[in-house]
Design brief:
35% helix; single chain; 9 helices; 291 residues; alpha/beta; eight-stranded parallel barrel; TIM Barrel
């Protein structure tokens, strides 16, 4: 598969893992998630990346792996946005993947994010203290294999999230070992403090390390620095993601009020680079031949 330089898949990451809805405009309930997804799709997104949140009052800042919570959210999104492609998170700390697997089986998404390597997930405050206690986002090969098995069982195309260069290179090893089938979907996650920096100069080097026939996407984490990086990715033929999981800021530095605003800005950026957003139907048809 040759990645088109004329069209681009736009993904919107609606809410993220732990972003507090009491401080930021992230959706939590099925109704809020559906409304946010509809705004994103109307702005030009074909794919929505979803995390599931605890639905108990006052607990929306915490994740949930309850299959019925996942089902309620995804059913609301599908009703609001017929044909949209759902990309479900499977990221979880520790070796127990029963939560993500249960949600995969209940929701049966078209795509699922697959964290393809471990990372010391770190961030410092301005005073040099840790923003959160240092943690290991552990994704050993055995865990990856169990998630891949579940994705194959439900027909979800894996989206390989790569936070560092060695993880990008590992996807080629996974393909050679038969764990991943081409075309492998690889996302460069750039801007996490302990991962790859949000530097456009890295993109051509990362592209060189992709598995044969791979398709790639950029996930840029940060503030105004993400937009020049996304623009360069558009110029190089990559797929693009934005959303309140990734940034709260628009290209002019102002704070985004919704996912729809971020997608509108990303679509304008893509078109300036000569790329037209693919429709949900087009993406769904392409994925149908890749599952």
């Amino acid at each position: 598969m040759v990645q088109s330089r004329d069209t681009v898949r736009i993904c919107c990451a609606l809410t993220g893992v732990l972003t507090d809805p009491r401080r930021h405009p992230v959706p939590v309930t099925p109704e809020q998630m559906a409304r946010a997804a509809r705004e994103a799709v109307e702005a030009g997104a074909a794919i929505v990346h979803v995390h599931f949140r605890n639905q108990a009052p006052g607990m929306g800042h915490l994740p949930s792996w309850e299959p019925e919570v996942a089902a309620a959210i995804c059913e609301a999104i599908r009703a609001a946005c017929p044909g949209v492609v759902i990309n479900m998170s499977t990221g979880v700390l520790g070796d127990d993947v029963s939560g993500p697997v249960g949600c995969l089986e209940r929701v049966r998404p078209e795509m699922a994010a697959l964290n393809c390597g471990s990372l010391n997930y770190l961030k410092l405050k301005r005073d040099g203290s840790w923003a959160w206690p240092p943690l290991l986002f552990d994704n050993p090969v055995g865990k990856i294999e169990r998630l891949l098995e579940a994705m194959r069982r439900v027909g979800a195309v894996p989206e390989c999230e790569c936070f560092d260069t060695g993880i990008v290179r590992s996807t080629a090893l996974f393909q050679r070992a038969g764990m991943l089938r081409p075309p492998v979907h690889v996302s460069f996650v750039m801007g996490v403090a302990s991962g790859m920096p949000a530097k456009a100069a890295w993109l051509p080097l990362l592209i060189e390390e992709l598995p044969p026939m791979a398709r790639w996407q950029l996930i840029a984490i940060g503030q105004e620095e993400v937009w020049p990086l996304l623009r360069r990715a558009a110029e190089l033929g990559g797929d693009l993601r934005t959303g309140l999981e990734d940034t709260f800021y628009l290209p002019d530095g102002s704070r985004a009020r919704s996912n729809g605003e971020l997608v509108e800005a990303l679509v304008a950026l893509a078109r300036a680079a000569g790329r037209e957003p693919a429709s949900p139907a087009e993406v769904r048809a392409e994925l149908g031949g890749e599952a």
